[in-house]
Write the structure tokens for this entry.
Amino acid sequence: MRHAETESVRPSLKDFDRALTEHGQQEAVGVAHYLRANELTPELILHSPARRARETVTTMIEQFETPPNTEESRKLYLASPEDITNSAQLIPDQVSSAAFVGHSPGLPTAALFMAGPATDLNIIDGVSSGYPPGSMVVLRFNIEKWSDLCHAQGNLERFVRPSDM
């Protein structure tokens, strides 16, 4: 998931320190409700340490009866698809589902990188055409261990924008 909507860039504010807008907070709540309603609540949420990603995760987990575990990783701040894949490969094997909250273009590019040949081309086109703040994908993998994860192995099942929720 890409972090929710943030305040605009301005010279007096570092990119790392940009906060969610009120609309962004509503987007994060909407994503959490979507995850719950579709039985997609992850066991673990890995996220960038940037303020906007932290605030997205904090707002989301407040919506769950049993909140997922969270883990902040500096490697996820403006991460490349390879950084995201490497981080996923380090998830403990007892974790059956995980989510990433971070930034574009790394997250949507990683999703496309991991999508296998069975993925619906309409979903690929959607992800390729724009990944606004608060958007998310659902990827499923048929792997025994997270360390087995590699490119073109997942089924990119869903691409959901905030306007779709």
In short: The chain has a mean pLDDT of 95. The beta strands are 44-47, 69-72, 98-101, 136-140, 155-160. The chain has five helices and five strands.
